Amino acid sequence: MQQKIALVTGGSRGLGRNAALKLAARGVAVVLTYQANQAAAEAVVAEIDAAGGQAAAIQLDVALSSSFPAFSEQLRQLLQQRWQRQQFDYLLNNAGIGIHAGFAETTEAQFDQLLNIQFKGVFFLTQALLPLLADGGRILNVSSGLTRFALPGYAAYAAMKGAVEVLSHYLAKELGPRGIAVNVLAPGAIETDFGGGAVRDNAQLNQFIASQTALGRVGLPDDIGAVVALLLSDEAGWINAQRIEASGGMFL
C-alpha cells in the first residue's frame, strides 16, 4: 500500500507541530511549512526522522498569495525527488495568527492581516495545490470554537474562521467528484504559544476556561493533534463537509 503524504501548513510550532508528529506516528509522511523559524521546523523534521518517520520542511508565508505558484512547484519537485510521487494525499490548512482587539478598536491593518492569512491564504493556497492533491485525498481546515461562541476581542479573527467554514462546504461539494473529502476542525482554547500564550500562561484565564469546559480542564496540543490524525485516517473517510469541534465541551 502506498504511503500517504500530508502537507501541514504552520507545522513548526503549536498545533501544527503536534499534528505533524501525530500523523508521522501513524506512518504518514509529512511536509510541513514554516514562515520564518527554519530551526524550529528542522527540529520537527529531525524528531520525526529520529522516530523512524519521513518529513521535510519548506518555507511559506501564507499571507503572500503571489508566492503560491512557486511554492507549488517547489512542493512538486520535493514529492518527485523524495517520494517519487506526483501528488500528496492530505492538506491541513493550519497556519495562522491570533489578534485580540475589540471590534471598536480593530484597525484596517489588523483586519487585512487576518484576512490574508486566515482566509485569503486558505482559499488561494488550496486552489494552487489542487493539481497536486490526489483524487480520494482529504482537506482539513482549522477553524475555531469562536465561530460557535463569542468572546469579546475576537470579532475579526472569528469572522475569518467563519468564512473558512462556509468555504469548506463549497470545497466539499465541488471536489466531491474527485473523491476529496473536506472537513473543518474547530479547536477550543488550547495551551500553546498562540496569541502570545495567554491561555497557557495566564492562570486566571486558564482557570476560567477550565471552569466553563465540561471535562474540567483546558485543552492540550495532544488533544488536537490526535483528532487531526483521526480525521485524516482511512476510518474517517466517510466524514465529509462537517465541522468537528474539539473543545472538551466549552460553553455548553
UniProtKB/TrEMBL annotation:
It comes from Aquitalea palustris. It comes from the Bacteria. This is SDR family oxidoreductase. GO terms for molecular function: oxidoreductase activity. Residues 4-188 form the Ketoreductase domain. Keywords: NADP, Oxidoreductase. InterPro entries: KR_dom, NAD(P)-bd_dom_sf, SDR_fam. Belongs to the short-chain dehydrogenases/reductases (SDR) family.
